[in-house]
Amino acid sequence: MSLHRIEKLFKYFKEGIVIAANCVVLGIIAYFLVLGIMLLLKKRTREDIKAKSVGRFALEMVFSICICTILKITGIISNNITFSFSPGNLLGFFEIPFVGAATKMVMLNFLLFVPYGFLFFFVFKKPKMTWWKALIVGFLTSFCIELIQAFIGRLTEIDDLIINSAGFLSGYLLARSAYMFFGEKKRLKGLICMILVIAVSAGLLIFLYMFSKGKLL
């Protein structure tokens, strides 16, 4: 990858951080709105809320901000959403994945979902969830986003569906590795798992880069 492309990648990354910062207030409002609805539906009680630590509240708020950031970047949250659907908007689901794909967008979409998967693990406390169930969660989230995009004038992309799911899974497995290392005191196993997740994720991105440029064909 050229220096110019790396610079553009970092530029997009910085823009994502700015969007996340702008979503802080929205994320906090959304969090308390959901909390209020859960209280009304008796899915949460006041005793449950009082028993929570400050750290737990902060974690859930950050998770809410993360979701709002994803929805903002993907255009689901916007000031000028217009309904515009045609069957052609769904054709992206049936294309051959990653052929001629923009490398920087593949990497950014992957990185966008890593924090989501990481925070999901700790918010919902799912240390025993299998990797394929975590993959389904990431897949369904990405699928819903792509489907909504088809109704607001944006094209669906099978590339996004796959790489977003992979990013979520990578974040989830990193969180589980960190939990092994710090929470379960399984230092060696946690460290090995962490290294493997990072190595496989990096390998996947390198493979997709080479495939998109036709270097594997």
Task: Please provide a written account of the structure.
With 217 residues, the chain is mainly alpha-helical. It has 2 domains: 1-73, no CATH class; 86-217, no CATH class. It is 72% helix and 0% strand. The chain is built from 8 helices and no strands. Helix 1 (3-22) runs parallel beside helix 5.
Structural class: mainly alpha
**Average pLDDT reading:** 88
Order of helices and strands: HHHHHHHH
Shape: globular
- Rg, Å, rounded: 19 Å
- Report the biggest beta sheet as strand number plus sense, adding barrel if it closes: none
- Low-pLDDT parts are none
Helix content: over 70%
DSSP strand tally: 0
Offer a few descriptive terms.
217 residues, 72% helix, mainly alpha, 2 domains
Give a brief description:
Helices cover 72% and strands 0% of the residues. It is built from eight helices and no strands.
List the helices and strands and how they pair.
Blueprint: H1 3-22, H2 24-40, H3 46-51, H4 54-73, H5 103-124, H6 131-150, H7 158-183, H8 187-212
Helix pairs in contact: 1-4, 1-5, 2-4, 4-5, 5-7, 6-7, 7-8
